[in-house]
Amino acid sequence: MQTAFTIPLWADLLAVGIGSLQGALFAAGFRDRRLDLLGVAIIGIATGFGGGLLRDLLLNRVPLALDSNWYLPVATGAALLGMLLERVFHRLGGLLTALDALTIGLFAAIGSTAALAAGLPEVPSVFVGVIAAVGGSILRDLLLNVPIALMHVGSLYAVAALVGTIVLVALRAVGVPILVAAVVCVAVTFAVRLLAVLFRWSLPEQQSLRRVRWIRRRGDNTP
Description:
mainly alpha; 223 residues
């Protein structure tokens, strides 16, 4: 049985707070929805808690967010702060992007190592790590009834977490200490996410087979 990677409570609360803050900022952008304070708080809490809740449900254990009195107040306060100071935080877009990338890496490392510690094989452990990293965004979009952002062209949230967790699992497979593997996972996830934002990397857009054939045929006929 492997040991799970753990971080201090203050760091976990910071990650949850950043997720809740960004969830509230995202929800505040929908002027036509006319969300009240409770609605914004719920969206923020879902975004901050989502990944951890899904991770713990998959691992069949009590969610860590319900194991302390601090998580709910921090998530609610961060969500309301994001709504009230929306314009201020939008000016700090670069900093929030960097903090978000760091948060994704932390949740990915915690999720994948927790899965390994629970005895799951390597591939399912990667899956749990990715779900932990992006679950909050998925729940946020479902609650707001909008297309899931992770499936849009130009979003590499899940890809960054996937690369990081694969590296972590591979390092653990060759005997690298859990702390070192987790730090590398966070660093890789952070780097991939920021590079994707800076250079606008994206996965290829889906196209129907008929459209691909038409494009190729048109290219062949072009003088």
